[in-house]
Structures are given as C-alpha cells and as structure tokens.
C-alpha cells in the first residue's frame, strides 16, 4: 500500500505492518474522543514514526496514487478529527 504523509512524501508499506499501525490508530482515536491533547500528540507522533520506520520511501519524483493519506506531523487534534472516518485514520 502507498501511504502519503502530507508535507513529507510517500512510502510503500507492506500489508503485514497494518496490525501494528491499527493498534496505534485505535489508541489515537480513544485519545481524540476523550480530548487528551498530550496523549494525542504522543500517539500521533508514534504512528507517523512507525509509518516512516516500516515503510520504504518512494523517490520524490514518483507520483504513485496514495491509498492512504495521513496528516502532516504538525496537524492539530481538531485538524485530524476532521479527517477521521469511523475506523480512525487507518482503515481496518
């Protein structure tokens, strides 16, 4: 799956990594629902770091369609809340 982090670029992620990412996404969703700003920031950073660590960056000139788009690292809780689906940021 091709994942874009807004403002950074794209990475290719193997589907086998999604259980780990979904766990972080579930934590993020709980923190957002409770309004836990500090927990949100910590978990959101961990989620983006995991995508970077587990994914293989695509070259800057590659224009692959992104199957998943994640907010930029400096996105606020409110900005991320607007992008959420019922499943969180990561479907599944």
Strand content: 5-15%
The run of helices and strands is EEHHEEH
Provide the spatial order of strands within the biggest beta sheet: 3-2-1-4
Termini gap? 13 Å
Record field, number of beta strands: 4
Spans of at least 5 consecutive residues with low confidence:
none
Strand pairing plus helix content: what structural class? alpha+beta
Give a written overview of the molecule:
Helix content is 46%, strand content 14%. The chain has helices at 18-34, 37-54, 77-83; strands at residues 2-5, 9-12, 56-57, 68-70. The model has no long low-confidence stretch (mean pLDDT 90).
A few lines on this structure:
This protein is α+β, with helices and mostly antiparallel strands and about 90 residues long. The chain has helices at about 20-35, 35-55, 75-85; strands at about 1-5, 10, 55, 70.
List keywords for this structure.
46% helix, four-stranded mixed sheet, alpha+beta, 92 residues
SSE blueprint and pairings:
Layout: E1 2-5, E2 9-12, H1 18-34, H2 37-54, E3 56-57, E4 68-70, H3 77-83
Parallel strand pairs: 1-4
Antiparallel strand pairs: 1-2, 2-3
């Amino acid at each position: 799956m091709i994942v874009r982090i807004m403002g950074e670029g794209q990475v290719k992620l193997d589907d086998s990594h999604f259980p780990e990412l979904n766990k972080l996404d579930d934590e993020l969703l709980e923190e957002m629902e409770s309004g836990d700003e500090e927990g949100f920031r910590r978990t959101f950073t961990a989620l983006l770091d995991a995508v970077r660590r587990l994914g293989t960056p695509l070259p800057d000139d590659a224009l692959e369609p992104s199957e998943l788009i994640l907010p930029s690292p400096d996105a606020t809780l409110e900005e991320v809340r607007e992008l959420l689906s019922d499943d969180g940021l990561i479907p599944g």
